Amino acid sequence: MKFTKMQGAGNDYVYINTFEEKITDPVKTAIAVSNRNFGIGADGLILIAPSAKADAQMIMYNADGSMAEMCGNGVRCVAKYVYDHGISRKTTLDIETGAGIKRIDLTVVDGKAVAARVNMGTPFLNAKDIPVNLTVSPVVRNSITVADKTFEFTAVGMGNPHCILFVDNVTAFPVEKYGPLIENHPLFPRRTNVEFVQIISRDEVRQRTWERGSAETLACGTGASAVCVAGVLCGVTNRKIKNHLTGGDLDLEWASDSSPVFKTGPAVEVFSGEIDI
């Protein structure tokens, strides 16, 4: 099976071009290729597939084999692959995802896509749409207790669920302790991604992510988008911010409450090869 390893701000996935390759068991494949000791090593598996209503389709599996609706870093890399490998040579692409069709504007240098601006869609703020098992909407500065600590959190849906916690020192924060407890908390019927965020200024934040089904990852594009929204809802950031993730920087903008979130960041092809699962 031919594959391509790609990353966006350190959020890395194994990509399979199913225009040419056939995958019979994507769950088993995702678990196998994601293993960083016995596989290729990745945050998950993304299939690049034909679409009846877009230029291509992104089908995403986490490292544990569970399906995910959307990945902001992953969809940038899908768009890069589609352009660089000649599936479509349009510099504005529509990619079908589990969270709807995302429009992506590519930055092309010397015939290769190097970055992309993604329309991430309008955030979901109603509790049942995120989803969160609460009756109040929007879910802003609510309390959640895990283990020995109670946190204040804000929940945002970006086609997948996100729980955002603002902390004083994100570098020193025990993400590996609290991340999985919040991910699997009964408040979140489909589990949740968890963003731990330090405010640097009203225009700048630093983020670490505990990603649903993949543990801590170096970046999360939907998470960064949710952080942009949460910062506005909580009154701690402006509508246009730079987010410093562990794997690199992303630029976010949420122009108004009824607007989509736009995210701009890099897309990099690391290597290609063949593997026998």
What can you tell me about this protein's structure?
The protein has 277 residues and is of the alpha+beta class. The protein folds into two domains: 2-105 and 269-274, Diaminopimelate Epimerase, Chain A, domain 1, CATH 3.10.310; 127-259, Diaminopimelate Epimerase, Chain A, domain 1. Helix content is 16%, strand content 43%. It contains four helices and 18 strands. It has helices spanning 26-34, 72-84, 175-183, 221-233, and strands at residues 2-8, 11-17, 44-49, 56-62, 67-68, 92-97, 100-109, 112-119, 142-146, 149-157, 161-166, 193-201, 204-211, 215-217, 240-245, 248-254, 261-266, 268-274. The protein has an 18-stranded mixed β-sheet that branches. Helix 3 links the parallel strand 11 (161-166) and strand 12. The longest helix is centred in the first third of the chain and has 13 residues, at 72-84. It is globular, with a radius of gyration of 18 Å. The model has no long low-confidence stretch (mean pLDDT 97).
Describe the structure using short key phrases.
single chain; 277 residues; alpha+beta
